[in-house]
Amino acid sequence: MKIAHRPQRTSISNRLALVLCLLAFGFARTGAAQSDAGAAQQPTPRDPVLVPRPALVPGGEAPSGAMRLDAIVTDASGKAVSGLEAKDFTLLDNRQPQRIVSFSANSEGDAGMRTEVILVIDAVNAGLIQVGMERAAIEKFLQKNDGHLSQPVSVFWFTDAGLKVQPKPSTDGTGMAKLVHQIQPVVHTIHNASGGPANLEKHQLSLKSLLEIADYERKRPGRKVLVWTGPGWPYSAADPVLYDKREHDLDFEGIQTVSNALREARMEVCSAGGGDPFYVREFMKGVRTPEEAKDAHLSLQVLALNSGGQTLNLGNSGQFEDLIRQCVGDAGPSYTLSFDPPRDGRANVYHELKVQVDKPGLTPRTQAGYYGAP
């Protein structure tokens, strides 16, 4: 999508840089007032509502020298495979084999190891009809198996005003379906008639919200699968004549921030309705220098694939429920590996990651890469 209006782009870029700086210090430091406001709106079982996302107290898991990666392995039908052992895996960092320091196989039935599912209803980038389809599909998904969910699920409502969410994950699908049904349509404050500036504002707000989720989730243990319904956010085609060094630098900073945030949150992203991987194939190579960075590298579809997730095409079927179920399939059996990442002597060096499984017919998926520390 070609974006003109360069003055507005610079303004948006400055705001994106500010967002990234805020994220570096943590959204948890936004103050007790926001946390108290969220706590004051806690719903009762009889009156389920979505509330503003509360801030967490700074903390979380202490970092260690080893880097942890979550991986899933699927068979030819796309179903997650269990029962593999450490000896079945090879981990490559920049094509060099690495010693696996620790390994665990996470079964879907292990209550303490279940993957959390986060369902995002995107009312910013989708039209009113599509938002209705998203909600209806999520309601149907939640009510399968008489409302008994295999994994804990959270629902996020993403609007022009930001994110709202239920206070904590739940396995009560029936109750959550009622909650989703209660969500009221909202009036857009970002007007599509403004063209390029509106697209840029959606791009920036969507990235900010994704990073806010990751920043919150990195302080909570366990693996997560984030299912973002809808087409994803718009991005610039980046005319090389207009794309100067500052633009490249800002996008490169954004790519590093999002990549590392998703890995630290142990969060795989799945784009339900964002399109086939074919359409973003030219942006899937790891970005090693600022000169290579473009807005498209920060699209939902590219971020999803680089997180070890999927981007799924809705096509003409309108079957959002099938896409959601396919995304949630990644929350089944998984594996956690850790290794000691090599030191580069300088920051922000890109490392390509690859996991191989020594069994025919199986396909592993994990984060595509990371940016190393000095």
Describe this structure in words.
The chain has 374 residues and is of the alpha+beta class. The chain has one domain (50-57, 87-374): von Willebrand factor, type A domain (Rossmann fold, 3-Layer(aba) Sandwich), CATH 3.40.50. The protein is 30% helix and 24% strand. It is built from eight helices and 16 strands. It has helices spanning 6-25, 32-40, 128-143, 173-182, 196-217, 245-264, 300-306, 320-328; strands at 51-52, 67-74, 89-93, 96-98, 100-106, 116-122, 148-159, 162-165, 170-172, 224-229, 267-272, 310-312, 334-339, 349-357, 363-365, 369-372. Strands 1, 6, 7, 8, 9, 10, 11 and 12 form an eight-stranded mixed beta sheet that branches. A four-stranded antiparallel beta sheet has the order 5-13-2-15, with no helix packed on it. Residues 1-15, 21-48 and 54-63 have low confidence and may be disordered.
